[in-house]
Amino acid sequence: MKAEFRATMPALVSVFFLLVVSCTTDVFALKWNLFRHKVPGPLDFEISYKTYYFDQKIDHFGFLEDGTFKQRYLVAAQHWQKDGGPILFYTGNEGDIAWFCNNTGFMWDVAEELGAMLVFAEHRYYGESMPFGAESYSDAKHLNYLSSEQALADFAVLIKCLKASWPGAQTSAVIAVGGSYGGMLAAWFRMKYPHVVAGALAASAPIWQFPDMVPCGVFYKIVSDDFARSGVNCNANIRGSWNAIDKLSSTDEGLQWLSREFSLCAPLTKGDGLKSWLQETWVNLAMVDYPYKANFLQPLPAWPIKVVCQHLQFSPEVSERQLLHGIAQAAKVYYNYTGDASCLNISQSATGNLGMMGWFYQACTEMVMPMCSDGVQDMFEPQEWNFQAFSDECYAMFGVRPRADWAEVVYGGKDITSYSNIIFSNGGLDPWSGGGVTRNLSDSLVAVWIPDGAHHLDLRYNNEYDPRSVLDARLQEVTIIKQWIKQSAAQGKV
């Protein structure tokens, strides 16, 4: 989702050589990308892929808008066993597809074992895949074609073309893979296009984080539990920080002190901006609480919440300034672990590779994900879920109003037992697991639980510091994927 998935408006806290492909023209390879991937320990290897662009229809479901755009996708075929070898197809998230490609190590780790081609497809309106170029975000009329349904149709059309144009791919089993929003798309892809994909691995996919499916407070409770288990008084001191910020920000001298203490690039004029920035910080930390040094959203140490909580293990009875000194040091673990930042800018998100404006639009149309906090079961300020206020903000920003139940209407909500061949993996540390499928729904709708896992840890590269639970999860996932590939091959021979 995501890095902070930013699911609701109240959660705002919460060249190139190109290759253009169409099904009726020849394929011209014009760009080769080479990256060296490094992780702690013995792993040090190169990943490489080719970049392609596909002429995709702007509107798959109407006939008035007949234009096309260039959808970017990346292909790595060095391990592909031609003549029917499988295709692992990454269903692109709300951001630059190259970023997801380089952070989805699971696919790279298993490509040789499976003899698989890897395809990473960019989601329309993100990265370089802009239906109307620079005008794509200009108004609601141009944004009208940004939806999960259109994106899934993009993926289906692209796969049809790939299988028709790549020699040897006609009988290839396609397995959808995705994490966060991409995981939701992977699951929905299998549901809506079972003739296109043989199965789906949906990692950290909150397909039930919608109205009347899960309690609105579950997300922030899991975030708070992560901090509670990571250090004595850690979540209690964060809970107390909101009032402390209010008190200090009530005077000019207090605002000046806060600006200095947090090393802010611009002086505070009120405390609300600082509080929303901190709320986003704690949420992001919960999502990337990985067991090793990582650079998914920010450069961070191993188990970053434990490092953060080292600055917050004092008695809650300390003074406001002592408390906020600890909060400032904790925030700097996230924003300046390397020590390279001369100041911190609270007006900028720490998720620069994600298309936040596009996600806001999706949240304002079909991705309505209620969130709330009460300050008792969680460490955040009380905040009710108010659909009308949310709708009004959407209308003010985009001129559209959300359809609260649309995800349930289109994708089945919690009534999905008629579907098949989907793995839902979730981590016990991941706040998005509260809206995920965490128990088996049938023999082929399988839930994989990773107690020590943060946001889609199983989709990351193998690492010597991985907990046993994620190693077991990946083994189970590969075993099931092999079964799907075998089933698809058998069906093809009938």
UniProtKB/TrEMBL annotation:
Q: Is Disulfide bond one of the keywords UniProt gives this record?
A: yes
Keywords, sorted A to Z: Carboxypeptidase, Disulfide bond, Glycoprotein, Hydrolase, Lysosome, Protease, Signal, Zymogen
Q: What is the top EC class of this enzyme, as a single word?
A: hydrolase
MF terms in GO? dipeptidyl-peptidase activity; serine-type carboxypeptidase activity
Q: What is the annotated localization of this protein?
A: Lysosome
Q: Which GO biological-process labels does this protein carry?
A: angiogenesis involved in wound healing; negative regulation of systemic arterial blood pressure; proteolysis; regulation of blood vessel endothelial cell migration
The record's section on Pfam families has: Peptidase_S28 (PF05577)
Per the record, what are the reactions this protein catalyses? Answer: Cleavage of a -Pro-|-Xaa bond to release a C-terminal amino acid
- EC number(s) on file: 3.4.16.2
Q: Does the keyword Signal apply?
A: yes
Would you name any one GO CC term?
Answer: lysosome
Matches recorded under InterPro entries: AB_hydrolase_fold, Peptidase_S28, Ser_carbopepase_S28_SKS
Q: What does this protein do?
A: Cleaves C-terminal amino acids linked to proline in peptides such as angiotensin II, III and des-Arg9-bradykinin. This cleavage occurs at acidic pH, but enzymatic activity is retained with some substrates at neutral pH.
Q: Which family does it belong to?
A: Belongs to the peptidase S28 family.
The entry describes its oligomerization and partners as:
Homodimer.
- Tell me the protein's name: Lysosomal Pro-X carboxypeptidase
